[in-house]
Structures are given as structure tokens and as C-alpha cells.
Design the sequence.
């Protein structure tokens, strides 16, 4: 009987939770544990379910889907995770497990982020991957996805491929909007999950997923977070494990930076750019210069650019500040957006491009 | 003896002629109304009897049959009370039959013999083909709008009877005509709106080009305030439009202005709990026009768009394309006019707090559920989609009053004239195949559109809509061709659904 099949079948039992699986596999092999379940030692309900599960078929399904099954304690189990007190007893992976190798940096944040936050996350993703650091995140909407997108962009140009930890089976793409990102991380880097094929993303899977991210990484960077939210759970888990947590400073009036600014206030280090993260990692690598110098536009475009803040500014405010007509302002904004000076979102505009 | 009086009944917004025949003969005393009367119509037996007795007129103690011809058509409402009473009196020999020649009657009777107004006087009178028409007193002006009849407005049944007997005069129309019109309230003025440059601009473009407008923004930002000022900047109705709208309002029982004619573009704002029938029109027998038809030639304002039932909203799509609503029931199919400017307002998400991106406190699921309430195809019908934000406190408190409605209305009217010169009703109705001819685009403007098309930010249909709005913007600027500025502004006024957080 295949050990992998038994492990996957155990992880897929209804109502299975990470700690329960650890208990089941604490002092016996997956095959022994599976036999115990089938004999009813773990309750009649599981016995009934287990009677209908064909272990070989489960193993074949995982092999066919290209999913690796790793039991805690096996040689291929990522060492970065193996020592953790809450490490998943069984870990599933798609892609190159070799990507899960130190240095690992988590770049996480809220799904409800600002445009600036998304840009920052992307820049961190690019710069860290270029500096040879594996970017770890959760593939969620917002900051997570942007960090992954940045790392993938850099990986195409020879950077380190990213690692994603998800809260569902590796064949259940969630969120659907990130299907393409999901595919590319699996192709280039590595996708990890503690859930076997076919498991739907339940609400409580995400805090559990966050603990894996916290355990995996050497440094955790929070780009934007509201006062309460998933990222704050990841920070708690990272703090409990003694990981370095860095926060990206944000505008004091932006609700999306309320959590990160509080982290800074509470004594966590600031992450202004990837260099701060590299320093925290103890890697004194200089960042390659990426920014090109360009001249700040003048005339109408310059006046309009001056009226746009580094935080979301309404079209109304821009028009009021410039004193220009709505037509010229729209035309100037369209040109500025094309040249990546500003970005528009639902009638709000903010500066994204530097002119140094 | 037999007597016949012409009258009319209402189906939808059209009146249909009805001949009221009364036959009084010997036999067991009784009173029967035949010819498909509805409930209100059948009850006229009791009203007519009481009204005759209250007016000291004799009730014939004989067998009375009233027929409403053509008998195959359903008669609705109480407007046939007066003709039934008159025909009955004539058939009973109380009135000289020859006095009834060329006279039609419309009106409901009170038990005390008073003549009461009924809805739909304008289409009803229009359906009557005889020279003299007797209507309730308060409906005189409305009846006179048709212009083909000698309108006799009466207050009580006994006045009609006396006049027909030759015992008294018809009420003098001229004395009442001299009543000065009560001063009507001016429509709300745009000068009262402080700040809100983008909102005002969108409003002006919507009025000038007939573009449907969706405003999203937090509660209290001024969406409703702006929408209420739209009728004030629309051009006044032409005589045909005014008659069409008056006809619908009359049939729907909407109170008409004192002069009888709806001369200003109507503003209809149904509540979001409105049912499908109340919006579309219909009903089993009456076929009353709905809110959409009442808004014809004016503005239909749907506040809290997200709170309307999804099915009700999707019924808006057909009239938005065709300008009419067809309501089919087992008994009849009627067509209501429904050519209106649609203005809608909604919060960007359930918490309504979403100002700048990142400030909202709703979960992704809540936002998605809220967004699904308005279907993509309906959102697509809005040429203008703007975010309205809270006004700057400084502008609210200080600053000189903004431009008044009259100034904006002048520009709107001139753009409408230009549209008419192109052979279209409004710029929003320019057919796609004529865009190249009437909305030529300069090279820099093409480059902007080209970039947007290639990046996928603009679809082919979106391109047509952007060009129509840009046409209106260029007209407002007095330009012949569409410049970069107009095209960019048209796109700035059409925030993407996905960006509004409304795409599902």
C-alpha cells in the first residue's frame, strides 16, 4: 500500500484539521494510521468514509496531477518548515520543491489595498527576486498577488522563482481571478498546500495557511494592512516564531496602512525598499539600479501632476486644484497615465511614478 | 324608449369611443348594465340611482337596461356614470331626446349628484367624435387641450339636466377661464449646488446629448441633489412631446399642473421597492402606464439602483433601446411611450463608505453580491458613469454661487439644435454607422483611442459610446471634429465598471 496515497487519503478525511493529522501521524506511518482508521479506531464516521476510499486511486490522482505528497520527516520535506512546532504533517506541492530554500521572504498584505500598495508590493517582488530571495505569499487578491506578479516578472529575467502557499487543494484555483498567476507560479516556482486534491478553500484554512507562511520565511514584510485582518494573523504567527517582521510605512490617513503603521509604532522595523529587507536578512547585497532618470513634465501636464497626491485624489479635487477645465485635465491625466506618472482607479487618481 | 349618448373608455394611454345605450320598458322593475363593465363600472348602478334621487330627479320604476357598446370591449372606471344617468333620464322621457344630439358625456357621479373628475380625460375626450363634450368641472383645461370640442364643464348632475331641458344655461366657460394661474414653484436651480464640478459637468453632458447617467458615491455626496436639477436644464417640451406626456400622466392619474398641460420635462423617481408592474405599466383590465412611461420626454431617476430587484431593472433594457414599452396581457396588448433620460445613483458598496480605494470595510463577498444586483448589460447602457465625492467643506461654506440652470440650459439647447441638424433626436442616438460621418476624430485623439483599444481597456461597443459622448463634448465646445481633449474627457466620464467595483 502506498504511503503517499495513505497520507493524502488521511488529509482528505472529512473534518480533518492540521493538529488532528499531526496527532494521527505522531508515532506511526501513514499506512499504519490509515489501517487504524479503516478498522474504526478513530471513530465510526471516518471508518465509513475510509471504506469507500481507494488509496491507490488517490495516489494515482496526485501523481497524475503532478502533485508531490511529502510526509513530515521524509527527506524531501522542506527543511525550512520541518522544525516548526505546527508544521503540516503532510505537505502537497506542485512545481519545483527546490525553490523552497533559504533565503525566503514573505510579502503579504490586505486584499483591499490601494494602488500605491499594489505598486509597492510589486516592486518588492521584483527587487527581492532579483536579489536572489524567494518571495513567499498567499496568492490572494491585492498585495499577495502583486508581490507574486513582481517576482514572476523578475524570474523571467533570471530572478529567484516565487513560492505560494494556498488554502485549498492544488487543483482548486482560488481566487479564480488569479488563475493565470497560480499557473505560472506552479510552472516556474512552487505551490504548497496542506490540503489534498479537491479540497475547497474554507474560511478557516486561511489563518492556518498564514501560519505556514510565517513558519517558512526568514523575514516577513507587511506592505499594507488594515487594523485587523489576515496579515495581522500572519504577523502574530511570525512573532511567535521569532521571525523578523518588517512593515512598509504608509500615509497616516490611509485606512489600508493603519495596521502596518501600528506595527511600526509597536517596534517592528520599517521596510522602505528591498534593501531594508536584505539588511534584515543579513545579506548586504546592493540593489541593482532600476530606475531611469526622466524629466518631470511641464505645462498643463506638470500642473495636473502637481495636483495629484501620492494617495488617492478624486478627479474633483484635481480639477479644483488646477483651476483648469475638465477636458484639458482629462487629456493631461490620460497622457500622464500612459507615461506611468499616475494611475487611475474608479475616478480616483494617485501618483505612482518618480521623476528623480 | 331608447336613448344613446357617446362617451369613451380608457385602455393604456388611448381612449376608445363607447356608445352608452339605455332602454326603459315595462316589466319587472330592475336596472342592469351589460357590455363588459368592470367592477367600478358595474357599481355605477348604485351611484347613478343615488345621484338621481339626491338631485330630485325621478327614478323610473320600470325595467332599465344599459348597454355599453361595443359590447366585446372591457369598460373600466367610473367615467361612464354621467352618460349612463343622462341616457337613462332621456330613455325614461325626463329629457328631450333631440337635446342629446351631438353631445358626449364623461364623468363620475357622487351620491349627492356631484360630477367628479376621472383619470385620462385628455385621451378620453380625444376619442370622442361629437362637437360638444360634457366633462367634470376640474377637468375643463385638460379637456380643452384636445382643441376639437366645445367643452362644457359641469359641477353637478342637475346643472346638466337643467341645461338639456332648457331650464338653465350651461356654465359660462369664459368666467372660469380668467382665473389667474397659481404661481408654480420654479424647478430647483443648479446654482444651489456648491462644488461638484465633475457631477455638474456630467449632468450638463447628459442633458445635452441625451446620455444615460450613473452616479456612484457615498451617501450624502449630492447625487440626488444633482439629479433633481436635471429637468431644469433640459429644453422645454415641444407641443407634441407635451401632449404625449400629458396623455400618459392623465391616464396614469398623475396630478397635472394647473394649466392642464405638462410643459416641463417630468422628473419621476420611483422608490426602490417598486414592483415590476408599477414601473413597466400593466394591470389586468386597466393597463395603467408605469413610472417609465410617466417619465417619457423627461427624467427617470432611480436612486439606490443596487436596492432595486434585479428582475425589475432588467426590464428597463428594452425601452432604453426602443423608446416604447409593449405590455401584453391575455385581453390586450398596449404600447406605452417610454423615451426618457435614465439617471441612476448608487453606493459603490454596501457600507457606502468607499471613498478612496482601500477605505471600504466590506468584504470581497459582500461587494461581489452587491455588484451582482445590477447586470452588466444594464450598466453598459450608461454612457456616463461618474464617481461623485463629498464636496470640499471650503467650497460648501464659502465661494460664490455657481452657474445657474438657465446658463447651462442655453448651452444644452444649442447642442440639441446641432443634433437635430444631423438628423438625430440627440447625440446618444447617433447610429454606429454614421459616427465616421458626424463624429470625425483628429489624429491625436485616434492615437488615444487606439491605445485604449489595444490595451483592452475599451471594447468596440465602448468605442461607439465614447465617440457619441465626445461628440456632445465637442458640440459644447463648439468644435467640428473630436479632439484628444474630448475623447479623453468622454473616457474620464465613463469610469469602467470593474473600476467602480461593480463588475461581477
Sequence:
Amino acid at each position: 500500500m502506498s504511503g503517499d496515497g495513505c497520507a493524502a487519503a488521511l488529509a482528505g478525511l472529512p473534518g480533518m484539521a492540521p493538529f488532528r493529522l499531526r496527532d494521527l501521524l505522531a508515532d506511526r506511518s501513514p499506512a499504519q494510521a490509515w489501517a487504524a482508521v479503516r478498522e474504526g479506531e478513530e471513530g465510526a464516521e471516518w471508518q465509513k468514509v475510509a471504506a469507500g476510499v481507494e488509496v491507490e486511486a488517490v495516489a494515482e490522482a496526485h501523481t497524475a496531477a503532478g502533485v508531490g505528497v511529502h510526509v513530515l520527516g521524509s527527506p524531501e520535506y522542506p527543511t525550512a518548515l520541518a522544525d516548526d512546532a505546527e508544521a503540516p504533517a503532510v505537505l502537497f506541492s506542485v512545481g519545483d520543491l527546490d525553490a523552497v530554500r533559504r533565503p525566503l521572504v514573505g510579502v503579504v498584505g490586505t486584499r483591499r489595498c490601494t494602488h500605491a500598495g499594489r505598486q509597492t508590493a510589486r516592486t518588492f517582488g521584483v527587487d527581492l527576486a532579483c536579489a536572489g530571495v524567494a518571495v513567499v505569499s498567499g496568492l490572494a487578491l491585492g498585495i499577495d498577488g502583486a508581490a507574486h506578479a513582481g517576482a514572476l516578472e523578475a524570474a523571467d529575467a533570471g530572478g529567484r522563482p516565487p513560492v505560494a502557499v494556498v488554502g485549498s487543494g492544488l487543483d482548486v484555483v482560488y481566487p479564480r481571478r488569479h488563475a493565470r498567476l497560480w499557473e505560472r507560479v506552479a510552472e516556474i516556482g512552487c505551490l504548497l498546500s496542506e490540503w489534498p486534491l479537491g479540497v475547497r478553500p474554507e474560511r478557516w484554512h486561511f489563518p492556518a495557511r498564514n501560519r505556514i507562511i510565517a513558519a517558512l520565511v526568514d523575514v516577513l514584510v507587511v506592505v499594507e494592512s488594515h487594523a485587523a485582518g489576515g496579515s495581522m494573523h500572519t504577523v502574530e504567527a511570525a512573532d511567535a516564531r521569532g521571525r523578523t517582521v518588517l512593515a512598509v510605512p504608509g500615509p497616516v490617513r490611509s485606512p489600508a496602512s493603519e495596521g502596518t503603521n501600528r506595527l511600526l509604532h509597536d517596534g517592528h522595523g520599517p521596510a522602505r525598499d528591498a534593501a531594508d529587507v536584505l539588511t534584515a536578512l543579513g545579506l548586504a547585497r546592493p540593489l541593482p539600479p532600476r530606475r531611469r532618470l526622466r524629466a518631470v513634465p511641464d505645462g498643463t501636464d506638470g500642473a495636473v501632476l502637481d495636483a495629484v497626491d501620492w494617495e488617492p485624489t478624486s478627479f474633483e479635487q484635481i480639477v479644483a486644484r488646477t483651476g483648469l477645465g475638465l477636458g484639458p485635465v482629462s487629456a493631461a491625466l490620460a497622457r500622464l497615465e500612459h507615461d506611468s506618472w499616475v494611475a487611475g482607479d474608479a475616478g480616483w487618481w494617485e501618483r505612482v511614478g518618480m521623476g528623480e | 324608449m331608447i336613448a344613446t349618448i357617446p362617451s369613451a373608455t380608457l385602455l393604456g394611454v388611448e381612449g376608445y369611443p363607447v356608445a352608452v345605450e339605455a332602454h326603459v320598458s315595462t316589466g319587472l322593475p330592475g336596472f342592469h348594465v351589460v357590455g363588459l363593465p368592470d367592477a367600478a363600472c358595474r357599481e355605477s348602478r348604485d351611484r347613478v340611482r343615488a345621484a338621481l334621487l339626491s338631485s330630485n330627479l325621478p327614478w323610473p320604476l320600470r325595467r332599465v337596461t344599459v348597454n355599453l357598446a361595443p359590447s366585446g370591449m372591457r369598460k373600466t372606471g367610473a367615467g361612464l356614470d354621467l352618460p349612463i344617468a343622462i341616457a337613462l333620464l332621456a330613455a325614461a322621457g325626463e329629457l328631450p331626446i333631440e337635446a342629446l344630439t351631438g353631445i358626449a358625456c364623461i364623468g363620475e357621479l357622487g351620491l349627492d349628484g356631484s360630477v367628479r373628475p376621472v383619470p385620462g380625460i385628455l385621451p378620453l375626450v380625444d376619442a370622442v367624435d361629437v362637437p360638444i363634450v360634457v366633462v367634470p368641472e376640474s377637468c375643463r383645461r385638460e379637456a380643452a387641450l384636445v382643441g376639437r370640442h366645445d367643452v362644457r364643464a359641469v359641477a353637478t348632475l342637475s346643472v346638466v339636466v337643467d341645461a338639456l331641458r332648457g331650464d338653465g344655461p350651461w356654465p359660462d366657460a369664459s368666467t372660469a377661464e380668467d382665473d389667474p394661474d397659481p404661481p408654480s414653484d420654479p424647478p430647483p436651480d443648479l446654482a444651489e449646488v456648491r462644488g461638484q464640478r465633475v457631477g455638474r459637468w456630467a449632468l450638463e453632458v447628459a442633458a445635452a446629448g441625451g446620455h444615460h447617467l450613473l452616479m456612484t458615491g457615498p451617501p450624502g455626496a449630492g447625487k440626488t441633489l444633482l439629479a433633481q436639477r436635471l429637468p431644469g436644464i433640459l429644453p422645454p417640451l415641444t407641443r407634441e412631446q407635451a401632449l404625449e406626456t400629458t396623455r400618459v400622466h392623465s391616464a396614469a392619474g398623475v396630478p397635472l399642473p394647473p394649466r392642464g398641460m405638462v410643459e416641463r420635462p417630468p422628473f419621476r423617481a420611483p422608490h426602490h421597492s417598486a414592483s415590476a408592474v408599477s414601473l413597466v405599466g400593466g394591470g389586468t383590465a386597466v393597463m395603467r402606464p408605469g413610472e417609465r412611461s410617466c417619465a417619457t420626454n423627461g427624467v427617470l431617476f432611480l436612486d439606490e439602483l443596487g436596492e432595486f430587484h434585479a428582475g425589475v431593472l432588467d426590464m428597463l433594457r428594452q425601452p432604453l433601446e426602443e423608446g416604447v414599452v409593449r405590455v401584453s396581457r391575455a385581453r390586450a396588448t398596449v404600447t406605452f411611450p417610454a423615451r426618457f433620460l435614465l439617471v441612476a445613483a448608487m453606493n459603490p458598496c454596501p457600507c457606502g463608505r468607499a471613498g478612496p480605494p482601500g477605505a471600504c470595510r466590506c468584504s470581497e463577498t459582500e461587494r461581489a453580491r452587491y455588484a451582482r444586483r445590477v447586470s452588466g448589460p444594464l450598466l453598459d447602457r450608461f454612457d456616463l458613469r461618474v464617481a461623485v465625492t463629498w464636496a470640499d467643506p471650503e467650497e460648501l461654506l464659502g465661494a460664490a454661487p455657481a452657474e445657474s440652470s438657465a446658463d447651462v440650459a442655453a448651452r444644452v439647447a444649442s447642442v440639441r439644435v446641432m443634433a437635430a441638424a444631423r438628423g438625430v433626436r440627440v447625440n446618444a442616438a447617433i447610429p454606429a454607422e454614421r459616427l465616421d460621418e458626424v463624429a470625425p476624430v483628429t489624429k491625436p485623439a485616434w492615437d488615444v483611442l487606439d491605445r485604449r483599444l489595444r490595451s483592452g481597456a475599451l471594447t468596440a461597443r465602448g468605442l461607439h459610446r465614447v465617440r457619441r459622448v465626445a461628440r456632445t463634448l465637442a458640440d459644447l465646445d463648439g468644435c467640428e471634429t473630436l479632439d484628444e481633449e474630448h475623447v479623453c474627457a468622454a473616457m474620464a466620464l465613463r469610469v469602467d465598471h470593474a473600476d467602480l467595483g461593480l463588475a461581477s
